[in-house]
Amino acid sequence: MTHMIPGMATPQHSDLETAVNAWHEAVNSGDLDRCAEAVGDPVVVLGPKGAGPISPADFAGWVARSGIRLRPRSWHPISERLIVVEQDATWPQTPTPTRVATVFRASAGVVTAALRLPDLRSALELAFICREMAATEEPPTP
């Protein structure tokens, strides 16, 4: 299922939308090959059990172990490469949905960061900080 993002019709945003949709479809399918193909190498993750860069195989393994399913509820574009998606998360042992939010970064058609936070406000705050850090980064001097 593809989710349209209001206000995201420019070419820069279509790659982001495509990557995030493919990520959700892969995770929700439980297909480990699709999960690995939906992310960069490495992919930066953040969640209740840790944070940092992991390989696509490790990401697929996490999907398999957790059994998580994430249903997008609302989309909040931040920049050309960043978006926050509010989601209903379920797990095999907890079928009642829990509302969470994930900051996504994408590049070259794949998700390169998926930072899951407990609520939309926290995710938006982190996304805005990430955007400002990128905007104020000075190029290295030769």
Quickly describe the structure:
With 142 residues, the protein is of the alpha+beta class. The chain has four helices and six strands; from the N terminus they run ααββαββββα. The protein has a single domain, classed as Roll (Nuclear Transport Factor 2, Chain: A), CATH 3.10.450.50.
Can you walk me through this structure?
The chain has 142 residues and is an alpha+beta fold. The chain has a single domain (11-135), classed as Nuclear Transport Factor 2, Chain: A (Roll), CATH 3.10.450.50. It is built from four helices and six strands, in the order H-H-E-E-H-E-E-E-E-H. It has a six-stranded mixed beta sheet with strand order 2-1-6-5-4-3, with helices on both faces. The longest helix is centred in the first third of the chain and has 19 residues, at 11-29. The protein is globular. The protein starts with 10 loop residues before the first helix and ends in a 6-residue tail after the last helix.
Q: How much helical structure, as a percent, in the residues?
A: 25-40%
CATH architecture: Roll
Strand order of the largest sheet: 2-1-6-5-4-3
Q: Distance between termini?
A: 47 Å
State the domain count.
1
Order of helices and strands: HHEEHEEEEH
According to DSSP, the number of beta strands is 6
Q: Approximately what portion of the residues adopt beta-strand conformation?
A: 35-45%
- Anisotropy-based shape: globular
Q: Report low-confidence residues grouped into runs of 5 or more.
A: 1-13
Q: Let me know the average pLDDT.
A: 91
CATH domain topology: Nuclear Transport Factor 2, Chain: A
